[in-house]
Design goal:
Structural class: alpha+beta
Shape: globular
Catalytic activity: DNA(n) + a 2'-deoxyribonucleoside 5'-triphosphate = DNA(n+1) + diphosphate
Organism: Nitratireductor indicus C115
Strand order of the largest sheet: 5-6-1-7-8
Helix content: 25-40%
CATH topology of one domain: Dna Ligase, domain 1
Oligomer: single chain
Strand content: 15-25%
Main location: cytoplasm
CATH architecture of one domain: 2-Layer Sandwich
Radius of gyration: 24 Å
InterPro entries: DNA/RNA_pol_sf, DNA_pol_Y-fam_lit_finger_sf, DNA_pol_Y-fam_little_finger, DNA_polymerase-Y, DNApol_IV, IMS_HHH_1, Rev_trsase/Diguanyl_cyclase, UmuC
Protein name: DNA polymerase IV
Length: 407
């Protein structure tokens, strides 16, 4: 039973599947049901998802795998199967879209929904529709989801995190300010560890303290972030649900089993990752204007470099050579545990890769890449290789493909 004075009036929801990757693996292997499960990339990688049993032992997402296994040595570690997770995520997404066309995906397993005006269609208020949806996901998909229901996106997201797993929480307008007052400032979207430390050094640790401050004072201290602090601390969020929200970037990255510093080791992997990004761009019929290189050093420091192109691209050749030029500037003996490449500033593929009057060979390279794509589509991904990866076997391939795109 769920009772709330505003239950029949609220229609904006956030739905988040519980420990999604791990839940899918447990669904597919019932023997794992009562065991701690970590989905990630072996000893050298990081935790993608930990089931709730593993979380009891202190395992958290993005934790280095060696630390996770120190905290929970009996855990079962499973390498991510992105294709399987994407298929399950698509199934859940289609179930969301059966409730309302106003679905704004945030990731493979979570989304905002606006169910305003759907009561007549479903013959029930949004709260009941969402409760039925959560039960349907368990019965038909075999995983669980948590639901947050409120009047704005910020509090709907907060509500969905309150009672995981299998949670259903409501935050109404009447109690929003009082509920927020006792919460830490880190609850506010955009306040990470560094900014929370800055606020703490200024004596601001709770949202209630922010509620006592004027907007002008917060903006004077923290700029545009101060404006966000003022509004969200009071439960004021005018953002609407945007259906069919498009990805902001497409990228692929891998964590190495051992730290690498040599171009002989890094360049073939960069080429393979560039080809994966290119394949996804071509499949989605989109292109990107900015190429982004990501590196993580042995001491877990992240380096991000980007370069804007004159025209959008979806060609592996342009992505790779742009990334290679940036990579060369970082090869100073530093050892890296991760490398990634991607593109942002996405646009329609019709605007991509126009003829280059300066580089007259670019057209021939594009034609050659098109021929390679055709051969791979017919005979498989390994049917044709470039000189960068040919003959290198696994050394020329990412050791663990991670996909932080669709962001």
């Amino acid at each position: 039973m769920l009772r709330h004075a505003e239950l029949s009036e609220l229609s904006l929801a956030h739905i988040d599947c519980d420990a999604f990757y791990a839940a899918v693996e447990k669904r597919d292997n019932p023997a794992l049901r009562d065991r701690p499960v970590i989905v990630g990339g072996g000893k050298r990688g990081v935790v993608s998802t930990a089931c709730y049993i593993a979380r009891i032992h202190g395992v958290r997402s993005a934790m280095p795998m060696f630390k996770a296994l120190e905290a929970c040595p009996e855990a079962v570690v499973i390498k991510p199967n992105m294709e399987k997770y994407a298929s399950v995520g698509k199934q859940v997404r289609e179930m969301m879209q059966a409730l309302t066309p106003m679905v704004e995906p945030l990731s493979i397993d979570e989304a905002f929904l606006d169910l305003s005006g759907t009561e007549r269609l479903h013959g029930a208020p949004p709260a009941l529709v969402l409760a039925r949806f959560a039960r349907q996901v368990e019965q038909e998909v075999g995983i669980s989801a948590s639901v947050g229901l409120s009047y704005c996106k910020f509090l709907a997201k907060v509500a969905s995190d309150l009672n995981k797993p299998r949670g259903f929480s409501v935050i109404g307008k009447a109690e929003a300010v009082s509920f927020l007052s006792g919460q830490p400032v880190s609850l506010i979207w955009g306040v990470g560890k560094a900014f929370a430390a800055t606020l703490a050094s200024d004596g601001l640790r709770t949202i209630g303290q922010l509620q006592t401050m004027e907007r002008s004072e917060l903006m004077r201290r923290y700029g545009t972030m101060g404006d966000r602090l003022f509004h969200l601390s009071r439960g004021l969020d005018e953002r609407s649900v945007k259906a069919n929200s498009e990805a902001k970037s497409v990228s692929s990255e891998t964590t190495f089993n051992t730290d690498l510093s040599s171009p002989d080791d890094l360049v073939p992997v960069l080429r393979a990752l560039s080809e994966r990004v290119s394949a996804r761009l071509k499949k989605a019929d989109i292109a990107g204007r900015t190429v982004v290189l990501k590196l993580k050093t042995a001491d877990f420091r992240i380096r991000t470099r980007n370069r804007q192109l004159g025209d959008p691209t979806r060609l592996a050749d342009r992505i790779f050579h742009t990334g290679l030029d940036m990579l060369k500037r970082e090869l100073d003996g530093t050892r890296f545990r991760l490398i990634g490449i991607g593109v942002s500033d996405l646009t329609d593929a019709a605007k991509a890769d126009p003829p280059d009057l300066v580089d007259r060979l670019s057209h021939k390279r594009a034609m050659a890449e098109g021929a390679i794509d055709s051969l791979r589509a017919k005979f498989g991904k390994q049917a044709v290789e470039t000189g960068y990866t040919f003959g290198r076997g696994r050394a020329g391939q990412p050791q663990r493909d991670q996909d932080p795109d669709a962001s």
